[in-house]
Amino acid sequence: PTHISMRQSTHIWQRVYALACNSASVSRSSSSSSSSSSCKPANIWCVGLNYAEHVKELGSVAATNNPLIFLKAGSSMLANGAELLLPSWSENVHHEVELAIEVDANLQPVRGAVSLDLTARDVQTQLKKAGWPWTLAKSFPGSTPVGTPFSLTGLDVQKLELRLTVNGAVRQQSSTALMLFDVKTLLKYIKDHLPVVPGDLVLTGTPHGVSALSPGDKLVAEVLSADGKVLSEGSWQVVRR
Q1: Pairing of strands 93-94, 119-120
Q2: pLDDT tens digits, residue range 210-225?
């Protein structure tokens, strides 16, 4: 059998990522989705309980030594402007607005975007009680809406603001300065312990204010700079069939 080293594997992924995203960029040139991400990530690495007020509202306990990491399928990503379809098997899907970070071919942070980590809270509660993984509650189709990307060059990611409105009313609003584990620490921990590949997304946790979605809701999520400029925006209409 042929054995592939970690360095060779990373190099292969770099080539695959470059080819896939270049191809997607070409195909986008004649479409109206030029502001969307280049291609769907292989993995979406997520951070739980990374804002103290969110920990409090869930009645949970914050991680202390290391961040809490879980995985969502890259195929759960939902494009900006698409319909947000609630799963038929959950009656309590919550929104969780987050800063998403994309890593480049060298696994360095290159772009950011606003994102939602949708959570079937009723299902998650049942899974927690049974001691089972959260995958069903977190990684259903369309459970990771992602807004327009922005370059991280010259930006302090710990001085950004997250905001989510539902039907025009603010549901979540907070600063990335309030993260319990900052972005640099999160990226190092995830890359040191997990098989991150080029193009992966890292969702850095949600602030307080999570609540249930209903059919007909109109969501607008944003990442803003320290001076109030909108860096990333995403909007989705909630439906149930």
Answers
A1: antiparallel
A2: 999 999 999 999 999 9
